[in-house]
Fold this protein.
Amino acid sequence: MAEGRRKGDASIKVEGLGFSYGKREVLKDIAFLVRAGGFVGILGPNGSGKTTLLNCVAGTLRYVTGKVAVCGKDILSIGSLELARLVAVVPQESAMNFEFTVEEVVLMGRYSHIDRYRFEDERDYTVAEKAMRVTGIWWLRDRLVTNLSGGERQRVVIARALAQEPKVLLLDEPTTHLDIRHQLEVLGLIKELNKARGLTVLAVFHDLNLAARFCDRLLLMEDGRIMASGTPEEVLTAENVAKTFRVIASIGRNKKGTILVDVGDVSGDEGT
Amino acid sequence: MVNLALFLFLLLSVFIAAMFGSIGPIGHGTPENTEPMPAQAVIDILTGRGGNWDDTYSVVVLEVRLPRIVLAAIVGCALSVAGAIMQALFRNPMADPYVLGLSSGASLGAGATLAIPVSVWTFALLGVTYQATSAEVLLPFLTFMGALGTIFLVYNIARTGGKVNTDTLLLSGIAVSAFLGAIVMFLLFIKEKQFGSLFFWMLGGFSGTTWTNVSVIGPVVIVCLVLTALYRRDLNLFLTGEDTARHLGMDVDRVKMHLLVMASLLTGISVAFAGIIGFVGLLIPHIVRLTVGPDHRYLIPASALAGAIFLLWMDTIARTLLGHSEIPVGIITAMSGGPFFLYLLRTSRKGGRWLGG
């Protein structure tokens, strides 16, 4: 992790970010900082603004107030190609209705590196191959993406993101549609990339325990604001969980010392 | 490989198509001129050994049939590439130049050339005392403007808050298309005599094609094809969804605009020279996709070639089937394309992979 960190400069820096859909304010005065090589999770109940926040950092939504900088660059002032070389996004679910081969899909990640007037060259194929090997889908490279399982498909999307050679990886509940084994595999893979390559990760999580297990730091959102941030121990307290998610929870630890949130029952009128 | 095979087949088709048909005047031929030309004559003329044959034969082959065959191929090419662009942009197999109102807009442009006196048009082309009287220049210009104007109208209706929603785009295309189509029909209805020719033109056809027509449309279509080929990766990215395309670095709205202009140009100029010919833009890319897959690196050239072959054969049927007079090719494409398309929908469940996944 240390080698990925350049003089501790912030990889993602968000200041005074605000966003509204029409009149409805979805994000209010968001500020946080993700250091290069960090693995940060965003938690919060439905409608708290997690995905909107991620989309603002991804440059998909044009925010009105505040500033988002990635590697020191204001994401709204750089072009879409340069942004794609800094930031890659893995969405919750990707449309894969077309009979592209795995390799073709992964090569799409090279879009921002290939000029319109040239063909894919050796380097593009090498980068794509590496991305496929790291994600363990090299053997699937000639298969059609339409015939893959959910877990394999998500690996393809991650490989495509890696082919962009980004500095920052943004993930929106990347494992929601996977079974528990594939959840662990995919997140383990991302954690490995984070550690080995110093890839900065910002991910939205639904599952509090998965977040606690894989993230260095957490942001807990409520109603468009960050109500707590810090290490999993600091953020996932019984009090915080009760307040944001309106559930009664007890906090424990497993043998490895990882925080475990045990949700007992709903409290008040609203569930997660 | 597929493309090479298609290309060879296209050449062969041109050759065969040149051999079919009566000698007699093109269009509504007189019965006494319907005797077929000897195939040997055509072969000799095409291979430069036509000296032994009647001069009429070489005029018919070189000045009547060949330009027509070439135009049919070019238009088929243009329409199917325009369809391939539309289908990728909207991730919808039902998208084609007709659904989005491009051809209605182009028809209205053509109607305008008939409705408004030529002197006004000469004036309208600002300052330049260029004689825009000839239909060869004015018509394609106005059909292109009609198609482009329509797509911009449709595009801007669908545009809300700096983003363009594909479903809204498709729906507003259908609405605008119906509206403009109604205006054209209204013109036809109230001024039957003046617009009689518009009616036949709207049925689509290639009769009376000259090499001048080919020399106007040819370069435009070739340039558009090359430009479209440059956007092959963008077209692929569109298939994965606009959000993903944006994440991968595409300036989605700008690229979309470029591609829409290209499709308008291809459609507008086709409509100008051949009237309205349905089903090519819808059918050909769809069939080709079943064969070569969705990758536009192969899909674009293969669609171009397959479209050329398809329309060339349709036109050959249109001008030879009845012997003494020809059928508008639009009728032939719809009559053969419609049932074939339904057959494809019913038999190959693969058709469903577009939408269902």
About this structure: Strands of chain B lie at 159-160, 163-164. Confidence is low (pLDDT under 50) at residues 25-32, 125-133, 350-357 of chain B. The interface with chain A takes residues 91, 162, 230-231, 233, 236-237, 239-241, 243-244, 246-251, 293-295, 353-357 of chain B (CB under 8 Å). The CA atoms of residues 193 and 199 of chain B lie 10 Å apart.
